Amino acid sequence: VQLQASGGGVAQAGDALRLSCAASGIIFRLNALAWFRQAPGKQRELVASITSGGSTNYADSVAGRFTISRDDTMNTVYLQMNSLKPEDTAVYYCNARRFGLDRWGQGTLVTVSS
């Protein structure tokens, strides 16, 4: 099982970035997917999630700015991040869950400067 996240980088406040996470070794379409993030000195927190049926949920801090989506034909989950803020700076992790079993990607660093 492998979840490979990409798309992180350095951005300025107000910019946009798109994260991708490609999965292999799982029945992708049956998994709930999510993006988490962990800022320095803070706990990992849920950013956005999407069920196998396509229902989405967002943290209050990113609602209206971030969009999670999935392409089951490509085994890939995306996080479109618009209007980035310095407080969005963190390592972002993708997550796949099925039957209570979590799979994690390696993380991709997003740094937003003011």
How does this model look, in words?
The protein contains no helices and eleven strands. The chain is globular and about 40 Å long. It is 0% helix and 56% strand. It has 114 residues and is an all-beta fold. The strands form two sheets. Strands 2, 4, 5, 6, 9, 10 and 11 form a seven-stranded mixed beta sheet that branches.
Topology at a glance:
Blueprint lengths: L1 E5 L2 E4 L4 E8 L7 E7 L6 E6 L5 E3 L7 E6 L4 E6 L8 E9 L2 E4 L3 E6 L1
Parallel strand pairs: 2-11
Antiparallel strand pairs: 1-3, 3-8, 4-5, 4-9, 5-6, 7-8, 9-10, 9-11
Q: What helical percentage do the residues reach?
A: under 10%
SS strand fraction: over 45%
Shape: globular
* Helix-strand category: mainly beta
| SSE ordering | EEEEEEEEEEE
Radius of gyration based on Cα positions? 13 Å
Largest sheet: 7 strands, mixed
For the record, give the distance between the C-alpha atoms at the N and C termini, rounded to a whole number: 37 Å
What can be said about this structure in brief?
The protein has strands at residues 2-6, 9-12, 17-24, 32-38, 45-50, 56-58, 66-71, 76-81, 90-98, 101-104, 108-113.
